[in-house]
Amino acid sequence: MILLLDLKKRLLFLLFAFLIGYFIVSLASAFIVGRFGADSTPAMRIVAVLQDMILFILPALATALIVTRQPAELLEIDRRPPALPTLLAICVLIVAIPAMNAVIWLNQSLPLPDSLAHTLRQMEEHSEALVATLQGPHNVPNLIVSILVVGVFAGLSEELLFRGAFQRLLSTGGVNVHAAIWMVAIVFSLMHMQFYGFVPRMLLGAFFGYALLWTRSLWVPIILHAFNNSLYVCAQWIAPQGTPSPIDTVGSGQDFLLVAISAFLAATGLILVRRACVAEAPQN
User: Fold this and answer.
1) For residues 79 and 221, what is the distance between their CA atoms, to the nearest angstrom?
2) Mean per-residue pLDDT for 212-227?
3) How does 201-214 read in b/e, with b if 16+ C-beta sit within 10 Å?
4) What mean pLDDT is reported for the chain?
């Protein structure tokens, strides 16, 4: 694959495209919210889709088209997802839930000044309220739309930008691939503006990054991201209103045995995913 720009110019172009997208989305969001209100589920869904398209998908595609004559190869969307590694990676997501909840509990337990903690908690509550608005009333049609918007489309768009464009620009530009994965994972988590979920979301981003590295197909982290988001949407839909979802209550800082088993199974699953990718490499 021939890259037409050096790393610095590639990253600057991606950032420039992202900032233009951010400006456009900000204007569109302000108009839509001003016209229909922030408590309108259809309006918030339109804003979410516009954000995914203009802020994430278009900058990734535009950058890939500018920096190389093989954009699909750069983004690694030219390979089908290998079946066994993908299935095993989904299993890792499931068995890791108690361990990830323990990480969330630890992240939320970090001591902070009262004023800062209050501000961060308000940001968390705002994000939770936004997700609740996106999901809309409790019925099956809204569940299906929520899975498509919050699960599938968000997973596709974010992976195109962060793993397909950002991570690949770094790793093909001479940056150590492991450093690239963790750098992107940190930015990925920061972009969500949720401090109390920063560490688990960073770990999740790193997992998606390694899934791309091992399988050499962006469709794998897209599938994993969409599955993860959709799983939580379904869990929140099942839970009675005002109560934590079943997923959120599995494992905590006190469930040491369950967390240890979860961490062991997740680590074992990662090894199996890596081995399965090595075994299927000649076929890719």
Assistant:
1) 13
2) 97
3) bbbbbbbbbbbbbb
4) 89
| Alpha carbons 71 and 230: distance in angstroms, whole number | 28
pLDDT, average across residues 176-202: 92
Place of tokens 């949720």: 194
Q: Which two tokens stand for residue 95?
A: 């068995």
Q: What pLDDT, on a 0 to 100 scale, did the predictor assign at position 284?
A: 42
pLDDT of residue 247: 79
Contacts of 25 (CB under 8 A, 6+ apart): 47, 50, 51, 54, 55
Both tokens of residue 26?
A: 């900000």
Q: How many domains does the chain have?
A: 1
Kindly give, in sequence order, each residue whose CB lies less than 8 Å from that of residue 102, ignoring residues fewer than 6 positions away.
251, 252, 253, 255, 259, 262
Q: Reduce the DSSP state of residue 3 to 3 states and report it.
A: strand
Statement: residue 80 has pLDDT above 90 = yes
134, part of any domain? yes
Report the distance separating Cα 67 and Cα 63, nearest Å: 6
| 36, part of any domain | no
Count Cβ atoms below 10 Å from residue 146 Cβ, excluding itself: 22
Confidence of residue 254 (pLDDT cuts 50, 70, 90): low
In a domain, 44, yes or no: no
Domain containing residue 125: 75-283
pTM score, whole prediction: 0.92
Note whether residue 241 is domain-resident.
yes
